[in-house]
């Protein structure tokens, strides 16, 4: 039996950080053992926020690919490609945009949230309003059965399903599959200042950081805000450090830290030093692989070129079916 197909992408709007790894990339690596996976660098999507100065997108495309490979995405198991190198994405986006009612896009919660959250970029563009249509084209071009998302992101996929139903209904032909959400648990991982880890907040620990960078950032991490004095007991459940200990520290150390924090036997400074040691131990294999892969840019480019050729064959066949359906 043919494997079910997975489709997902990441924007090269900056360097990838631990939030990206635990929020998506780690799951992608596991999925490639069971599914036929298509993963793409969503460089056109990056233009929604970087349209004023897109000059860094090419560099970040390379960096994203390096992080994927060094983290464990295998081009022998997954198809890795670049969105903008396959013009079928843009062409299908145009076709789908003709049948999507504007109110569907205006009610998208992300459209409203980003306009409030992002202060340094004018997000009132047509491109940002219509990004769910391009996202739908990305998914249906590859007949994806599933799109991996966290539980809170599952409603965002519903607009793609609505667009598919509208297109198939209008032209009386089942051209596209309705993509299903592949729900994954995403650990809550904030940045060093306690807010969501984000490039735009400048609070992230990047997969490309050096040991010196990571040490400095961990030492600067916000801890339990209610613990004013060293002698005050702390609460690991509200401390920004403890979720990282759950990822990188041995279980017996986690129990010890939990107990000693609550009794004030362990100070925040010492807790940070313990995290530096275990985090660096956990990240060193990735850091070493990353240095090796980044030193061979031609090999990285060849992987993306091969993946793009493979993906475009699938995309072209789907676009041809869509054109036949609309008798164009």
Short descriptors:
Tyrosyl-Transfer RNA Synthetase; 14 helices; 2 domains; 328 residues
Give a brief description.
With 328 residues, the chain is mainly α. The model has no long low-confidence stretch (mean pLDDT 94).
Description:
The chain has 2 domains: 5-190 and 297-325, Rossmann fold (3-Layer(aba) Sandwich), CATH 3.40.50; 211-291, Tyrosyl-Transfer RNA Synthetase (Orthogonal Bundle). Helices cover 52% and strands 8% of the residues. The protein has helices at residues 18-31, 43-50, 57-71, 88-97, 102-106, 109-117, 126-129, 131-140, 158-170, 211-219, 242-248, 251-262, 268-294, 297-325; strands at residues 5-10, 36-41, 78-82, 146-150, 180-184. Strands 1-2-3 form a 3-stranded parallel beta sheet. Strand 4, helix 9 and strand 5 (180-184) form a beta-alpha-beta unit. Helix 4 crosses helix 8, helix 4 packs parallel to helix 14 and helix 10 (211-219) runs antiparallel to helix 13. The mean pLDDT is 94.
């Amino acid at each position: 039996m043919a494997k079910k197909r997975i489709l997902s992408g990441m924007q090269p709007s900056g360097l990838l950080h631990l939030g990206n790894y635990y929020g998506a990339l780690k799951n992608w690596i596991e999925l490639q053992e069971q599914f036929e996976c298509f993963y793409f660098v969503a460089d056109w999507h990056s233009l929604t926020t970087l349209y004023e100065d897109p000059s860094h997108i090419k560099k970040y495309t390379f960096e994203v690919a390096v992080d994927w490979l060094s983290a464990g995405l295998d081009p022998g198991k997954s198809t890795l490609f670049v969105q903008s190198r396959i013009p079928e994405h843009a062409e299908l986006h145009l076709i789908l945009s003709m049948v999507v009612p504007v109110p569907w896009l205006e009610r998208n919660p992300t459209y409203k949230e980003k306009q409030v959250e992002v202060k340094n970029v004018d997000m009132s563009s047509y491109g940002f309003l219509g990004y769910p249509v391009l996202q739908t084209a990305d998914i249906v071009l590859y007949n994806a059965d599933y799109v991996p998302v966290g539980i809170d992101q599952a409603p965002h996929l519903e607009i793609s399903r609505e667009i598919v139903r509208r297109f198939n209904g209008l032209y009386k032909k089942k051209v596209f599959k309705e993509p299903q959400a592949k729900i994954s648990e995403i650990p809550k991982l904030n940045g060093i200042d306690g807010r969501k880890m984000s490039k735009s907040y400048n609070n992230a620990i990047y997969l490309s950081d050096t040991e010196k960078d990571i040490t400095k950032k961990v030492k600067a991490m916000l801890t339990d805000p209610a613990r004013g004095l060293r002698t005050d007991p702390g609460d690991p459940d509200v401390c920004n450090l403890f979720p990282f200990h759950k990822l990188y520290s041995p279980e017996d150390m986690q129990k010890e830290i939990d107990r000693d924090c609550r009794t004030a036997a362990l100070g925040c400074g010492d807790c940070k030093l313990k995290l530096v040691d275990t985090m660096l131990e956990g990240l060193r294999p990735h850091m070493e692989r990353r240095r090796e892969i980044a030193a061979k840019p031609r090999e990285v480019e060849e992987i993306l070129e091969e993946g793009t050729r493979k993906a475009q064959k699938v995309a072209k066949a789907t676009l041809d079916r869509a054109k036949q359906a609309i008798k164009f």
